[in-house]
Amino acid sequence: MDTLLQRPANAFCLYVMAHGAGAGMRHPFLQAVADALETLGMATLRYEFPYMTAGKRRIDPPDVLDRCVREAIERAAREDLPLIAGGKSFGGRMTSQAQARAPLPGVVGLAFIGFPLHPARKPATERADHLREVRVPMLFLQGTRDELADPRLLRSVVSALPLAKLCELEGADHAFRVPKGRNAAAELAEPLATWARNVIGR
């Protein structure tokens, strides 16, 4: 498995971060998030699903994706840090589905960067049904202009999950594009690191 580890000397936990459906682990936005978290004492491990590594457009079958998530968690566990798992869009959703099927060893929380609640212009909540089976704290980091997550619907979903918290980035879209002069990665990193510290008690 191809991975990218960033671990500051003072790391208090490790965020296992999967990529979105159409861009791999080396995407500039994921790099910016990893860099911002590193300054806050949060290590990151990025990895790729097989279809992305092979340069294919067709997404892997569910069982392959599940195995990949679990392999990444197994690799991350070698760092001997508390584990938070999740990732950008599709990667976060695949991680949550794996967690719902069978708990990911050592994972104490899930953090989603732009959870894809529904396809663009097709508001629905079925993609969140499996979250009722997740038994660890969850953080949703979401832009208020995200075309894949109607804010009203997402707020309803999160409010029905006792272990979930929503952090909205005003004006950000699904790709976390924000008005000039703002740094979306830094805006995401602060609440993510604070939430992670609370989850693991540090």
Question: What are the defining features of this structure?
Answer:
202 residues, Rossmann fold, 35% helix
Query: Can you list the strand order of the major beta sheet?
Result: 1-3-2-4-5-6-7
Q: Architecture, CATH level 2?
A: 3-Layer(aba) Sandwich
CATH superfamily placement: Alpha/Beta hydrolase fold, catalytic domain
Shape: globular
- Tell me the β content: 15-25%
Count of DSSP E strands? 7
Q: How far apart, in Å, are the first and last alpha carbons?
A: 30 Å
Structural class: alpha/beta
Average of the residue pLDDT scores = 96
Low-confidence stretches: none
Radius of gyration: 15 Å
Helix content: 25-40%
What number of domains?
1
Indicate the CATH topology: Rossmann fold
Biggest sheet descriptor: 7 strands, mixed
Task: Set out the fold topology.
Blueprint: E1 3-6, E2 13-18, H1 28-39, E3 42-47, H2 50-53, H3 62-77, E4 83-88, H4 90-101, E5 107-113, E6 138-143, H5 151-159, E7 164-169, H6 184-200
Parallel strand pairs: 2-3, 2-4, 4-5, 5-6, 6-7
Antiparallel strand pairs: 1-3
Helix pairs in contact: 1-6, 3-4
Please give a structural write-up.
The chain is α/β, with parallel strands linked by helices. The chain has one domain: Rossmann fold. 35% of the residues lie in helices and 20% in strands. The chain is built from six helices and seven strands. The chain has a seven-stranded mixed sheet with strand order 1-3-2-4-5-6-7, with helices on both faces. α5 links the parallel β6 (138-143) and β7 (164-169). α1 (28-39) packs across α6 (184-200) and α3 crosses α4. It is globular and about 40 Å long. The two termini are 30 Å apart.
